[in-house]
Write a structure and sequence with these properties.
Oligomer: single chain
Low-confidence stretches: none
Number of helices: 7
Helix content: 55-70%
CATH class: Alpha Beta
Strand order of the largest sheet: 3-2-1-4
Radius of gyration: 15 Å
Structural class: alpha/beta
CATH topology: Rossmann fold
Number of strands: 4
Number of domains: 1
Strand content: 5-15%
CATH architecture: 3-Layer(aba) Sandwich
Order of helices and strands: EHHEHHEHHEH
Length: about 140
């Protein structure tokens, strides 16, 4: 099970949430209500860099600053590089940034909540939707 019920929320979900996508709003609102949200530096960067202007950047920066923050560590970069390389050797391409987010989640033993299918390809990653779906059965 996840450490303390925490959930590392990927930028794909934050983007859907800020756009008002129903499923993301519904599920992330429950995670927020239960105070389970965790972000890392890579997620923060991805969300902020999508801002359309300085005002939007500052607004999103304020909104994102309230969440529990799990900083990347040197070992996360090594694990991300190893995962990326092993996938590439197998002919599978995933963004290096997703490998880094997955490495943080693995170290912290927490699932990733993402709508990005790349995480399905990264070994030893637990996805929040899998847990969420199993809890509702």
């Amino acid at each position: 099970m996840a450490e303390n019920g925490r959930v590392l929320v990927d930028s794909s979900i934050w983007i859907d949430f800020f756009r008002g996508t129903h499923d993301a709003v519904k599920t992330l609102s429950a995670v927020i209500r239960d105070q389970r949200v965790v972000i890392c530096g890579q997620v923060l960067q991805e969300v902020l860099q999508g801002s359309r202007d300085v005002d939007a950047f500052e607004k999103i920066e304020r909104k994102m600053s309230i969440w529990e923050y799990e900083a990347e560590q040197a070992a996360d970069f090594r694990l991300a590089a190893r995962s990326f390389a092993q996938l590439r050797w197998a002919g599978i391409t995933v963004p290096p940034s997703d490998c880094l987010i997955a490495a943080v989640a693995r170290r912290c033993r927490i699932p990733i909540y993402a709508s990005d299918s790349h995480f399905n390809k990264i070994p030893q990653v637990t996805l929040f939707e899998e847990i969420h779906m199993n809890e509702n059965r």
